[in-house]
Amino acid sequence: MDFSTLLRGNFTAMAENMTRGKSYTGNTKMMESLLPMLGGQFNPVFRSLLLLYQMIGSNLGIDPTLVLTLVGFFWAANRVARQVYGAVFRLIQENFMSSIHITSTDEIYTHMMKWLALQPLMASSRSLTAETVSKTAWEEEEELEALQTRTIAGSGGGNTEYLNFSNQEAKAPPRYVPAVGVHGFWFRGRYFRLQRKLQNVFDGEANYGTFRKEEDLIVSCFGRSPAPIKQLLLFVKEFYYQDHYARTTIKRPSPAPMRRYGGRYNWSQVANRPVRPMRTVVLDPKQKGQVLADMNEYLHPATPRWYANRGIPLRRGYLFYGPPGTGKTSLSFALAGVFGLDIFVISLLEPTLTEEDLGTLFNSLPRRCVVLLEDIDTAGLSRADEEPEAAPSDGKDSAKSDGDKEERGKKTNKDDWKVSDLARALKKEAKDDKKGISLSGLLNAIDGVASQEGRILVMTTNKPESLDEALIRPGRVDLQVGFTNATPAQATELFQRMYEADGASPAKRIDGHVAPPITVNDGTSSTSSSSFLSASTASPTKSFYADKPLSAELAAEAEKKHQFDSEELRRIAAEFGALIPDGLFSPAEIQGFLLKRKKDPRRALKETAEWVEGMRLQKENRTKVLKVQ
Q1: C-alpha angle with apex 601: 597 to 604, nearest 5 degrees?
Q2: Whole-prediction pTM
């Protein structure tokens, strides 16, 4: 059968039927003639299509062949248009557009995504990705008006309201960022094109070799120069760090599976807290000035050239030693805040941290930063030729240890062991099998041939005499700062700082409407307050006082109790310092006592003598249970 002749004859008949308004029996005969060629007489689907073809042609007056022809034409035109558009766009992109690629392993990716999430044009896009964002304790002051309160019946018959944070996570909105695909936005009058692509990358460092997803962010604009994109990235980076001067970022090593990816995955941000003022660190002013001057000289831009001309490695190390709670870590945070540096905290007792990982972490440090190694004396560092077991601290422990060894020696049969014997054996076996950081590995990471330069190393310890001499020799530790327990003068300074004015009296009530309480099943009641803390205050920390729980008499009494001027505060602080024995209590212990009385300095002064006597007895009896707080 001549197929071309058949189609030509049928299409001619179809055209005549369209002009004359006749039925479509000819077209039906054409379909019937095509069915044997396509095997349609045995296929029910083709038979159903033929029936549908006849119904449309006879009942609706529309030629189905024409419809199919038009559908095929538009489909082909769409494919051709897509091909032409793709070819033209590639031509424009290669010759008239500039682009910069950003991988998800780089920190600029985080900067860019944060900035894009705040753009109104991106927030109104039809293709978005929702991300859960957790806020720190220092970023929640703006949500004070959404707080709830819970009323609990007191023993005296009255009701007391307490803050309730059951809806805290429910009120936190997600962050919306552009989804995977192509997006557009404007910046400084110029149009930019953003493309997010996911690609599978083979990870050969895994145990069995796996594929991981890696994102590629492509930012492009019209023009043969990438200068506008560079300006955008510079602006985004400045935007990301715009509040860095008032905050200190703390980072720790990422989990072992994440560290394999390198780049920004080596370190994870764990906190972003406000800068700690240097005046809040309880330390001799002379020592403070010495550390500040030394660090300022080291961080000066002219210092690297001076070190290089004399062949000296550009490194600086500090050792802060003293009893617990004397402010060693606090000084580290305060120094980082003064110079605007990030803190990188490394724990040498991390089970998954190897010497190779430690070297990688040190090599990925930024140009200027503070590396903090806390409690270096407890890290278990020892030389390879030394006995891992340490000697007993005193004669009593030595005698007890000898007795235990002798007793365990008699118990050759494991069936006679007690639970304590089994625990000692397991602990010893764990120590023998421990694979941690050796002293040699730490020294190579600190100042080896390939170690990172420009960073500031801070090590803290409670027992400086137990450290190896090679760890604290000059060149690795350039300045040692000793901390002691508080003196009466330091106790006076701490008292004044605790009760100094914040700009508003804490006894002032905050006006606001509190909704009627809603009774819940546990016998308490939950109160929803839309403006519980809506009034403004000059204090940087909000005070949680409501009108409802306080009567007029109690409010007047509280107002009177908190009224004192700076002269009276200095007098009370001097009396408090005179009651504190020299070198007996750490600043942390004194601060803990004052925090329990942070709104009443007169009460703190009144109860100081009793607290000092109770703490003295506790230290003499060597007990850890506080009798007086």
Answers
A1: 55
A2: 0.69
